[in-house]
Amino acid sequence: KGAARSIDDLPLAKAALVQREAAAREEARRRRKGIGERSAEAVLQSIREEVMKREGSLSGLARVFKMRDKDGSGALNQLELFEALKAYGIHSVSLGEVANIVKSCDKDASGSLDLDEFIVLLRGGLNKRRKWIVERAFAVLNTDGDGRISLEEVKSKYDASGHPDVIDGKKSEDEVLLSFLSKLSGGRMGDKGYISLKDFMEYYGEISSSIIEDAKFEAVVRKAWNLSKAKMIAGGSKEGEAVLKMVRAETSKRRGGIRGLARVFKMRDTDKSGALDIDEFYECLLAYGIRISEEKAAVLFTMVDRGGDGVVSYDELLAGLRGGLSERRKAVVKEAFSVLDADGSGEITPQEALQKYDVSRHPKVVA
């Protein structure tokens, strides 16, 4: 009989022995070279990076996994997973490290790793800001509100020029467009002829793992569909205005008003950068007693983040919550201007302003 080439060709007892021997040899090799085993998360990140070098998505790796799943169980044991990674071209992960991944992710202690769960784990998922961005983009594209986007709509609106692989020079716009359509029509769309929000989320979940900054991820999504920040917000304008109105009302009920919220802002700004990220922003609202869900906080965050840089500055917060001047405030400003404009020319010279302006009462000095 010829030598077995895969764990699948061996009886269970023999397979277990081969698995232990292979693990021992691998461990010995790494000890000789002074290579320590990495944490499960470090190994997962290494696999993500290797995958991105090849296709820029997890689709290819998922196909290899399914080919190795001979019994159709939807799961692989540690040796099968190790062999699948090697078959895909990932040789930097040891058998011991694969065993650590299986152990840390094996919820039912079966000794195997569910393939769908593993792909989700590798993808890393979308954080709440990115999830909101994708939801907003889908809402704008889904013009009739039926919860689906047709293939024809996708073809007519998708712009590949902002894709990370195009920017990095790895692929042309045509190649990215063909890959995008192939994934949708061959995988997520199937025979449906349309994509749902879930499909949209899964696609951007794959891209998300290769983009570190939230602001860059938002730029990629907006560029792909030619969506301005205003249009993204307009996709949920009613919701956004409702959230903004609620927060303004809640803030006005507090004794400190907007200034009180501004003081909490400064306390939450622990690195003294003058800005808060989305998590700090949410904590700031809660700390001031404004009960709001993470989803609604994300809507508000995007509305007041006028610079679109993924953080909200002190001035952006105040401008966003105060909004425009009320009629009463407009009247006060007009009265002040008329006092300064002594000759009624409709203009105030810098000298006139400097003579009469009392900087000690400026909000930032008072605060």
Fold topology:
Elements: H1 12-32, H2 40-54, H3 59-68, E1 75-77, H4 78-88, H5 95-105, E2 112-114, H6 115-123, H7 128-141, E3 148-150, H8 151-157, H9 164-167, H10 173-188, E4 194-196, H11 197-208, H12 214-224, H13 229-234, H14 237-253, H15 257-268, E5 275-276, H16 278-287, H17 294-304, E6 312-313, H18 314-322, H19 327-340, H20 350-356, H21 363-366
Antiparallel strand pairs: 1-2, 3-4, 5-6
CATH architecture designation of the largest domain: Orthogonal Bundle
CATH superfamily of the largest domain: EF-hand
Question: Hey, roughly how much beta strand do the residues contain?
Answer: under 5%
Structural category is mainly alpha
What's the average pLDDT? 77
Low-confidence spans: 1-10
CATH topology assignment of the largest domain:
Recoverin, domain 1
- Summed up, the helix count is 21
CATH class of the largest domain: Mainly Alpha
End-to-end distance, in Å? 85 Å
Largest sheet: spatial strand order: 1-2
What best-fitting shape do the alpha-carbon axes yield?
A: elongated
**Helix and strand element order:** HHHEHHEHHEHHHEHHHHHEHHEHHHH
The largest β sheet comes out as: 2 strands, antiparallel
Determine Rg (CA atoms, Å). 28 Å
**What's the total count of β strands?**
6
GO molecular function, one term: calcium ion binding
InterPro entries: Ca-bind, EF-hand-dom_pair, EF_Hand_1_Ca_BS, EF_hand_dom
Keywords: Calcium, Metal-binding, Repeat
Pfam family, one: EF-hand_7
